[in-house]
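Lecture notes, unit on protein representations.

Consider one protein chain, 227 amino acids long.
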Amino acid sequence: MGKRNKPKFAVGDSVVILVNGIVGVVSNVKEFNQAFLYEVQGAEGVYTESALIHLQEFEGLLFDAEQINIDYKFFFGDLVQVKGYGKDIFKVIGFRTEIWRYQEESWEDVIYELSRIDDEEWLECSEDDLNFLADAKDADAFLAKYQEPQRNTQKGKRKRKELLELPNPEGTEDDHQIMVNHLLDIYNDYRILKEFFGDESYEKVMKTAVKKLKKLVSQKQDKKEPH
């Protein structure tokens, strides 16, 4: 009669289930058809000897349960601005977390998916590249307040071009008054833009408008003085 095989693992042994990396303790040993089957505490089913390895022998990655708490700074519908995209406004339409684990270090990256308000261009970027403007519940009110200055910005750009191309007044009294009114409109529009955005370039246009107004007044006075 041949020597009977002994089970490789005993009840109470700490083992690793190779198929999923779970660590557990052998809770029961069964013999079936001259082979041993093992039950592992915390795992369903039975396992053959080839499916298990002693914990101290295991050199692979152990999958211990890890609780990760992610602090999301932005959520669906929030309005943000992005580094490198000026004053463009984006809406958060999605986000995901990338989990990185190495032997010596570990970290998590939160990636946000965005849609630009003006043209719905899609963009994704990291949390550090975003600047919060308004949450989802206040988004509509914020955009309503923002869109009027935006329209003024486009209007201001056109007027800036007109200002640079403004001809010298050589016409009638009515022509002179039209040009004065035009310059005053430019000055007031850029004053509003500067107050809203705080951009110093708008002040330069205001100064140019004032300079041209003074020139118009001076030219009108020269015409009135007898020679």
